[in-house]
Structure prediction request, 825 residues.
Amino acid sequence: MKLSRSIALATGLICLLPSLSRAQTALPDINISSPLRSHPKPAPAAQPVAVNPHPVAVNPHPTAPAPRRTAARAPAPAPAPNPAPSPAPTPQAPPLSTTPAAVNITTAQEIAHTHEFDVAQALERVAPNVIIEDVQGNPFSPQVDFRGFVASPVSGTPQGLAVYMNGVRINEAWGDTVNWDLIPTVAIDRTAIVTGNPLFGLNAIGGAVVMDMKNGFTYHGFELDGRGGSFGRRQGSMQFGVEQDGVAAYLAVEAAGDNGYRKFSGSEIHRLYGDLGWRGDSAEIHASTNIADNKFGVSAAAPNDLVNVDPSSVYTTPQTTKNTLSQFDLNGVFTPQQNWKLLADAHYRAFDQAHVDGNTTDFASCGLATLCDGSGNPTYMPDFFGPTVPLSVIDRTWTTSRTVGGTVQIDNTDKLVERPNKITFGVNLEHGWTHFAASEELGLLNPYDLTVPGLGITTLDPAGDVAPVKLNAANTYLGVYTLDTFEATDKLTFTAGARYNLARIALYDLYSTQLNGSSSYAHVNPVVGATYKITPEVAAYASYSESNRAPTPLELGCADPNRPCLIDNFLVADPTLKQVVAHSIESGFRGDFRPAAYLPAEAGAVLPGRVDWSAGVFRTTSFNDILSVPSEIAGQGYFKNAGTTQRQGLETQIRYTDEKLSAYVNYALTDATFRSMIELGSPYNPWVVAFNALGIPASSILVMPGSHMTSIPKHRLKGGFDYALTKEWKIGMDVVYSAGNWVRGDEINAFGTLPSYATVNLRSSYQLTKNFQIYGLIDNIGGVRARSFATFFNTQAIPFLNFVDPRQVSISAPTGFFAGAKMTF
Prediction:
């Protein structure tokens, strides 16, 4: 749906507001620990409330929820308030007072106040250990790193986070990728990052990102937002929610486009979310849909030598991705009798992706009538141009995935030995099937801009380094889980549970029988933990949990170092990978207090608000971790079990909130290391290149225990504030600092890290009337061109370019200026 259509639809909906719209209902307390959410019936709808331009403190006490229609909620992330859900089912856990692990939460108001169009940016603010890596050179396609585990849209990236939307796991069936561009940010009601909880199923070895979406019961009103600015950016959003006589409807539409901040990296984003709900005395049912149609350029990493001359440079293009999505979900909660709830969900997800990628090639003229491959073997492709014309290729992949699944869950809150207790039982079944196809077209390399025009010759040579692929994949995931939370005393709460995961994956080769095969993985993941209220304002927590990740169909099809793949373009028959099993422990403290209670009256008047804080440590040890390893064949790689890895560290955060000021600071340390001696392919590591130059054949490096893992920054520091200068005028700022990380391919830590960087973002808004606001944003005011990702590459791949630096880097956007207006009823 185009932006113009969205605006036209929004205009039509305005006519319905006077008779249908009223203030949004305050939400009940959220729990975050099982795949479907059990929630109490919401309180009656609040009366209409006047827009309050001041930041409002988040109320952590479930007995007194703050009204949801305050316009200027304090935006900084709070470490401790209890999250609250929309009625649709979503993975959840006990309230934070009884949750034995770290939970980081952000709300719709916080996202709106900072005017984020991308949920990943909101996650970076809310959690100390989240950082965004700009691997693809496009702001709509970020890679989110949390504690050294990633949720990435890049096929071939080993994933370590599970992502849920209204209880539906949205990691794609083919490679567990997470396409953040498909998520309608304006429709998000609440987001939480949950750790140490295996009940979130496969791939939650680093944690789970849990998104509750809005519906007509939780959002009432109409909002239209539009902005424009640097890089040709134009974007708009609309949302509308209404409730009447137990029936509610919600609709959100977002559209955006820009020219990109690097060459050939423009984007067109269109996404829609809708929900229709019914509520009775003992039941609530929702039907929702998420539809998206997006296309964007993904410039990816470019040689550092090129970037130093022109930061907008790209290294071989076209590089484009087109994503389309249609998702439908039906869920409900039923209360057959007191203290019992039955929750159920059924969903269907259709995801299609077409990817085009210009690359260098090993095909070359060898004095024969046909080209030769990288090993000097003749192919069937004619040599039209001889040795003087540089050749390249255009790789194309098509991925069509369909997923159907459902969950049934029972919650019981009967007392146990006269003490509060909640026990959950659930079963989840998911079945996905994927059709994957890939082809490669021979092309020329334009020396002026490194574009690759195709020649219409498809590489069909079975003896070549790359062969086309067409196959079907089927994956079935079964999960059976239980969780019990028992309040042994008013201060001490125990949590224990387990989930049994069974994964079956089958590949069906449509060209030959080489890829045919099936694999099965099973594991029982326990969790035990406890919380203790040391004082009414301070609580301690500790937990131990296990989780597992089965190899994806993509990884199973590309695991042979002797027959690497152009990830994820071409697959080969491979040895079976082992599943990853992770053991996690974490412990910490959290609390809140009011400074005025401990200060003299005059000083207390200066700080009348509340302070929320938390501090904790964590360690996750992954056995048989899966890594993506580059091959000595240009542009290709494979997946490998890399022994034992460990990610450990500490996280601290503090936030102050009063009626005019909200400020926060958080810090995270992540020490990610290899714990096994392992040989990894790294053909373009400078040491390997040097050995080959001396006539000593080499293509890999020997990684010793204690070596730091690559692409994971050790230190992350963030801070910011929002302040109401007047009732109408607010200003705000965020700062993000990240230490430099090790270059991928330098797992032996021989060549230093990338430079550290810090970015500063400013914002300001002015409420012209009760219903109309204007605002301005300055992103990266210092113009820092951060290098958040790098890898080694073949400096000799393009003969007419004399590269010296062996690193390819991804570079962040320069300073961006944006202005917008928002209309709300």
